[in-house]
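Hi U.,

Before I forget, here's the chain from the pilot set. I'm dumping it here mostly so it's searchable later in email.
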Amino acid sequence: DCCVLLSNLLDNAIEANSKVNDERYITLLSNQTENLLYMEMRNPSTGDLQKDGHRILSTKKTDAPSGIGLENVYAIIKKYRGEYQIFKENEEFVFQILLPDMH
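Structure:
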């Protein structure tokens, strides 16, 4: 499940970087205690976040279904009764996750 979280968030961050003309970067912070995992991913953001409630909507310009990666992320967070926040701060997209013990 951790691999699914990371791969989907990284995929979105890489795509967001491809739309940026300035400095490109991805910052991943992670901290794990005995029974809690905190993860935060940041990347440059162009434009406003499109949300439906607490969920962010895909901005991909494609005829194929998109946003499935984030749906996988939301499902894993729900599975482990975790919490998440998505917001924009100083022209950065920020995705924070807090998960209890994943065993």
